[in-house]
Amino acid sequence: MTTFLGGDTVATNYWHALDDGRVQCDLCPRFCKLHESQRGLCFVRQNLDSRIVMTSYGRSSGFAVDPIEKKPLNHFLPGSPVLSFGTAGCNLACKFCQNWDISKSREMDTLTRRAAPEAIANAALAHGCRSVAYTYNDPVIFHEYAIDTAQACRDLGLKSVAVTAGYVCPEPRVEFYRYMDAANVDLKAFSERFYHKVTGGHLQAVLDTLLYLRHETQVWLELTTLLIPDENDSEAELEAMTQWVFEHLGPEVPMHFTAFHPDWKMTDKPRTPLSTLLRARQIATKNGVRYAYVGNVHDKAAESTYCHQCGEMLIGRDWYVLSDWNLNAAGGCRFCGTACAGLFEAAPGDWGAKRIGVSI
User: Residues of 258-276 as b/e, b for ≥16 C-beta within 10 angstroms?
Assistant: First the structure.
């Protein structure tokens, strides 16, 4: 049960005191060591009275109903609406962040919306959503708020989706994903150089999260890699990444290769050409990944799902809009009966590409 310490501040569990008087946060592999009143890199965790607290519980940067494909999740209740929300701050420092006004915020004024977990779950139900997504910034840093919301959603039959970079320590990771039904993990690159130089993190911690999700939970998993010209888009790196995914996660984990646009502290790079995304998709498919997609572009052929057995189109997509639907009631190919990995219902949703702001 969450312990409130006053206002938006709640107690947390993942920390320990150091011999020099500081307190170390043990939520993520940054292991911020904080003096009294000092905040961690994420900004929302603080040393207060010699313990780590979260200072933004119940406050959000906004709510919206999105298509589930926008997360992106292509194999999890396709066509359904999802209530999305985030807070402020982040535990990574990606120079290319495309939600930087939220994730890099140091102003609590960014968190203009207030909503209790039960209110979020009720709003999702009222808007016809099948799930709630913890997104925009990383739910790792609002661990307690996300878990309480996921529990409230579960009480109403709603599912929970984590959109995350996967940068979290083992113990809180186990607690967090106990309440999640699906996750899209941002595998930002496949080199320690990129993680250290461009994100301020480390690759192995993310790979550990992926291995945990795939082999120790029932959480539906998809991956996203934003391809940045001359940073993480070389043929050698894409070969290594996709081979690792096939060998360690298996052929059924979908991969999304999405287009970069100049933003935040990386405005010197050009937009990612479609040819790069298609090349990445081809490499993934060659290496055994059954479901590889492109994103942030219009290309129906490369956004659609195909049967890995007979090659027929199972789900047609153009951006976030579904067209063809050739799955049977059991989630198998209508042409040959081969199962398609994911969570599907007898018929797709019809939410389309709409995005609707929500007040709670």
Answer: bbbeebbebeebeebeeeb
Q: Phi then psi for 245, rounded to 5 degrees? A: -60, -45
**Widest CA span in the chain:** 66
Helix (H) or strand (E) holding 294: strand 292-295
Which H helix or E strand runs over 256? strand 255-259
Q: How far apart are CA 212 and CA 185, in angstroms?
A: 12
Q: Which residues are 46's β-sheet partners? A: 39, 53
Could you give the 3-state DSSP secondary structure of residue 221?
Answer: strand
DSSP state of 235: H
Cα–chain center distance at 26? 21
Q: Which helix (H) or strand (E) is 236 found in, with range?
A: helix 235-244
Q: In this structure, are residues 34 and 20 in contact, taking their beta carbons and an 8 Å threshold? A: no
pLDDT at 96: 84
Query: In this structure, how many other beta carbons lie within 10 angstroms of the beta carbon of residue 18?
Result: 11
Q: In the predicted model, what is the mean pLDDT of residues 158-167?
A: 98
CA dihedral sign, ordered 72, 74, 75, 76: positive
pLDDT in tens, 108-136: 555 567 899 999 999 999 999 999 999 99
Indicate the length of the chain as a whole number. 360
State the Cα torsion 314-318-324-328 to the nearest 10°: 40
Residue 33: pLDDT band by 50, 70, 90 thresholds? Answer: very high
pTM for the full model? 0.96
Q: What is the pLDDT of residues 324-344, one digit of tens each?
A: 999 999 999 999 999 999 999
Cβ neighbours of residue 161 closer than 8 Å, sequence gap 6 or more: 68, 71, 73, 76, 82, 131, 132, 133, 134, 135, 180, 181, 182, 183, 184
Pairing label, strands 220-227, 182-186: parallel
